[in-house]
User: Fold these one by one.
Assistant:
Number 1:
Amino acid sequence: MEGASTRGVLSHLSLLEVQARSRKTQPQQRSRVKELKAEAEALMIQRDKLKAEIQTHERLQKLRMSMDKQCPREQEEEEEMDEDSEDSQLLRLMARHTHLKDLLHAHHLIGGYDIIKTHQGKGVCVSVATSYEGVCLDTYNLEIDLKPKLRISRHNVPPFIPLNSLAEQSNMQTNIRAFLDTLSRHLNAFAGRKQQLKLLKEQHKSVEVMESNVLCSILVLMLTVPREKTAVLCTLDYTDHTRCLPTRVHFDCEDKELPDSPEWKKNCHLLMETPVHTALLTMKKMGNIV
């Protein structure tokens, strides 16, 4: 009887141990189930987010293509969108933003020149803008055929700019960027000299412009010295057509000693190193001219 009783106690203890272990594993299993559910929910959220991003990207691509006017079908789809919808307005803004970023990137790659396709991609139109002292001036355009080789078909570049010579010297066929850079220097220098002449006439009524040419590479001025109203003929020679400053300054005067005086040698250096309208203003403040 004692042996049976002992076995009964041991069996009962074993059952209690199994129940205790079961109670310990159940919370662990429930915790694991919660973790798996949370992970599954996070994956579903990520999936939905990726789906939304893909749909947004596809709609942006369609909008950008319609902006380039290369896909009428997408343009019709854009027109069918609800214009009052916040999502539609946001998509349009995003498409416009990315489109402008692409244009700016291309603009940077080609050196800041505006280029658009012409003749269904068989040619391009290049715009070269000019400016002086932060003021935008004239813009010049060149239409270039791409095949069978690069060829300037039309342009509005002034005839006194040696366009064909610049194209040959820069080897436009293999390095169009170098050609455009050289042309831009010539055009901006011309625009700068022309603008200086305009400002000179506006700001210095007492200075008489005796001679100038269309390229603004020669400028002859009549200056008046306050002392005895002596007249000085000032010739500015701009032999370097890629610069706005003269390479030579010469004075003619009845007083033969005046051009060689220290004062007028300083004036000579001033005119060679400073825009003419600014140099004349300095000379007037110093009392060298009227």
Number 2:
Amino acid sequence: MNKAARMRKAFKDMCFSGDLVNMVVAPNALSAKIAEKTGFKAIFQAGYATSADRLAQPDRGIADFGLMSDSAREIINAVNIPVFIDADTGYGDEQNIERLVHVYENMGAAGLFIEDQTWPKRCGHMDGKTIISEEAMVSKIQAAVNARQHDDFLIMSRTDAYAVTGLQSAIDRSRHYHEAGADLVFVEAPKTKDDLQKVADSFPDVPVMANMIENGKTPLLSNEEIHEMGFTIAIHPNVLVYTTTYSTEKLLRDMVELGTTERQIDKMVTFPQFNHFIGLDDVNALEEKFATAPIEL
């Protein structure tokens, strides 16, 4: 079994195991590798973090399929744990969705979600969202399910209807998306614990995801609370972007004001530690194994 098949099967087993799948969004390959080394069993690649990391731009539909898929490929190649993908709205009609499913499946992703926002979309916790018709989204889900080549590649439906037409509409839409073939369900940005609970209770036999954004619209809960409510997946999408921004700004202010990194040096890994972490020892060993004798001139 190759890596892609192993990652798809591992992620599907996690989602249907009854245990909580705890995922963090990795903005780039380095953060993905850190997540893997610190014990995460699966990670997410998403638009907010990718837009911030690659473009220094907000999640407002600026990161297109080309940029998102390039970033996903780098992340997947950097780790040996499943990577789940934010496919936004599918970047077009059913033919575009068929193409993106093939691209992500072939590069080794474990699955993806598609949302029912209009394009250009925006982060689910931003104001001003609009949504497509339920019928149009059902067609997108059906196209994604029909396009996949392996049953272990999971399709998640995401609805942003809560902010536009209310909780019951979001639940009803998600039921219809599941009936259309979505394996997993995601209702974005409920504003209360009671509404989160209603979402979980509405899908007792379907893996459902909860999205935890610091200072977002949804109450910030612990993984234990999320699991007790009945959610199967917990996603932490922005914590690495926010932490990196905070610590980087703090360091750079010191460098400007003090002319030294001395006050921050105890918060850094060392030169040897970092080289070891990113695999310099392995690269050196490979070079030594295949090195040829120097050519005499």
